[in-house]
Amino acid sequence: MEILMSIVIGILFMCATYLILSKSLLRIIFGTLIISHAVHLLVLTMSGLKRGAAPILTDGVTAYTDPLPQALVLTAIVIAFGVTAFFLVLGFRAYQEIGTDNMDEMRGTEGND
Amino acid sequence: MKKTNDVILQTVTKIITFMIILFSIDLFFSGHYTPGGGFIGGLMTAAALLLILLAYDIKTLQVILHVDFKLMTATGLLIAILTGTGALLFNEPFLKHAFDYINLPILGETSLHTAVLFDIGVYLVVIGVTMTIIQTIGESE
Amino acid sequence: MINLPLLPILIPFITAAVLMFFPKRIKAQRTISIISSLGAVIASFVLIFTIRQNGIQTVNLGGWDAPFGITLVSDMLSALLVAATSIITLFVIWFSFYYMDEGHERHYYYVAVQFLLVGVNGAFTTGDIFNMFVFFEVMLISSYVLIVLGGKKEQLRESFKYVLINVISSALFVIAVAYLYSIVGTLNMAHVSERIAEINQPGILTVIAIFFLLVFGLKGGIFPLYFWLPGSYKAPPIPILALFGALLTKVGIYAIIRTYTLFFYHDTGYTHMILGVLSMLTIVVGVIGALAYRDVKEIIIYNIIIAVGVILYGVSVMTPEAIEGSIFYLLHDMIIKAALFMLAGIMIAIVGSSHLKDMGGLIKEYPWVGWTFFIAALSLAGIPPFSGFVGKLLIVQGGFRAEEYIGPGLILLSSLLVLYSVMKIFTNGFWGTPKEYHGLKASMAFKLWIPTAAVVVIAIAYGVGAEAVRPFITQAVEPLVNPAIYIEAVLKE
């Protein structure tokens, strides 16, 4: 199971890298979205994918899953959610202001000499 | 923009919004011991509001729910922090929560936690932030 | 008061939440911000003296004992950094009363600054590696808000790059933490250190060490990863630039210092050698940039990169003396960079441009600005008796004692070139024939100068009073050289 997950994570990273290297603002933002998915899956996989009950809540549980990575993933998801939302707004504003979503055309010269 | 005919969406929205909000409240309270809590409860409520926004428009939403979502975020944040800070008054570590079992009428013996106050803060922050973001994009169109 | 280490984080946090209620009332925003920053400064000084008397202070959040809960740990290093951060924020807020446009101030400027303070102070104080990530994010999200504030074309373009770089580096941070967790099974930094010592840092942990270097290096701006820094830092207005330049890169450096002295100190031959080489290259590229540009902002921005190199070189040597020098220089650099950026802000306010070709003869009309800049410049280069001297001296001494000659030589040479790069501003900007200035805020120059001069005075006091400060720095070095002190304070064994 871990190996399968590793492959999936690898593919996600591959797609994300491809998207981030493209020129369109929106594709770049999607790339960061996918990279954060890949990272979250990685965190979950890193503690080992085990089946079991929640610890502490009930007595006499022998096989339980590690709750910590789940807490970490939740925190990371919340943060990624906020950052992605901000990034989308920023990309939208940049598109409106500059009038293009192409990173190449954005390259300005004002202020440089 | 051309006016589209979305009778189905609008009719469904009228009914389903309440279900979503009720479910979100259920999720919020079930976060006490089991999966759930302020974050996903808030997210789900925001989803219900978003549905109204999609089916009608921003003005309808403001008529139904006349609140400033930025203020809502601020209120939630303040509630959450002050709940945590409350522990400082008793010289306990920050965020230490207190609880007790109290016999309430009708409900019977109920466990009441200060953590719920914190969660209400989170709930408000999540709704506030999500709606602010959507409004920011929506307004400028 | 067991929550003392928490106060410098909590005060700005509550302030930020309160300030969100009335963003349009600028007077109230200003008053509350300045009072709360003053509160944070006082709290951090009380914290320093408590640590001086009673040793390392810890708080287990929510009452969950270490290593299970999140622990905040204030040792002398983090307390000193927190104090420096709070002081700088206080003066930058004061400075921005007269510098920022009202439009900025209405758009949650003070709220974002307070959140930035929360993030920075939190990252310095936390004793949990994942919690450090969370505080990094708090800091970064508020820096995103600050960098787009105003929304000019150039700002939008640069902030897009800045956000992209930081999103990717945050992803790498989580990956690094996940790898670390899969091997040691804990997140409490003291506990991690203990576990790594038990298994004696096998190869995989060295890989993780490099991963952490990559993540924090991207934030701190070390050699190949500094590319985003000059462009992004140039975009926002000066007070924001002063905060970024003085605080954000330093958080990255602090994280490198912490992880490389607490976690990865077993295989120094490999990891610290890489750190040393990279820091030397950082100094070289920083110097090249500082010499090449003729724009006040850019010259000082490249000086940030030089300082990053100097500090990290001291860390890579790993002798108590060199680390002491690094910490001394780190604190000096925070204060003096804030002062220099504020001075550059005054020049821009008068001239209306940040390029040297538009400046000249400023000293005729504004002698006080000129001489303050002169002192700050000497202090940056490390001329005795100013504050840069002691730190550099200790780093160079430490380097020579460790029988390394390239690094210390490079630092000495770079000091000379740093002096040249800032004197270039002084001779071209303040000397020469006066030109016509087009600054819109020239009338504010004296008001802007007061907080700036205060920061310069603090920098001078820090240098002249080095003898009085030294015991504090020595105490800060102890847990870095001997991790057992830190572990014992946190896990209470």
From TrEMBL, chain A:
It is found in: Cell membrane. Belongs to the CPA3 antiporters (TC 2.A.63) subunit C family. The keyword Transmembrane helix applies. It holds the Pfam family Oxidored_q2. The keyword Magnesium does not apply. Its main location: membrane. GO terms for cellular component: plasma membrane. Keywords: Cell membrane, Membrane, Transmembrane, Transmembrane helix. This is Cation:proton antiporter. It is a multi-pass membrane protein. The chain crosses the membrane at residues 6-21, 28-49, 69-92.
TrEMBL record, chain B:
Its main location: membrane. GO terms for cellular component: plasma membrane. It is found in: Cell membrane. Signal peptide: none annotated. Residues 8-132 form the Na+/H+ antiporter MnhB subunit-related protein domain. It is a multi-pass membrane protein. It comes from the Bacteria. The keyword Membrane applies. The chain crosses the membrane at residues 12-33, 39-57, 69-90, 110-134. Keywords: Cell membrane, Membrane, Transmembrane, Transmembrane helix. The keyword Transmembrane applies. NCBIfam families: PRK12573.1. Belongs to the CPA3 antiporters (TC 2.A.63) subunit B family. This is Cation:proton antiporter. It comes from Jeotgalibacillus soli.
Automatic annotation (TrEMBL), chain C:
It comes from the Bacteria. InterPro entries: CPA3_Na-H_Antiporter_D, NADH_UbQ_OxRdtase, ND/Mrp_TM. It holds the Pfam family Proton_antipo_M. The chain crosses the membrane at residues 6-22, 34-56, 76-100, 107-124, 130-150, 162-184, 204-228, 240-257, 269-293, 300-318, 338-356, 368-386, 406-427, 448-465. One of its GO terms (molecular function) is antiporter activity. GO terms for cellular component: plasma membrane. It is a multi-pass membrane protein. Keywords: Antiport, Cell membrane, Membrane, Transmembrane, Transmembrane helix, Transport. Its main location: membrane. Residues 127-414 form the NADH:quinone oxidoreductase/Mrp antiporter transmembrane domain. It is found in: Cell membrane; Membrane. GO terms for biological process: ATP synthesis coupled electron transport. Belongs to the CPA3 antiporters (TC 2.A.63) subunit D family. PANTHER family: NA(+)_H(+) ANTIPORTER SUBUNIT D1 (PTHR42703:SF1), NADH DEHYDROGENASE (PTHR42703). This is Cation:proton antiporter. It comes from Jeotgalibacillus soli. The lineage of its organism: Bacteria, Bacillati, Bacillota, Bacilli, Bacillales.
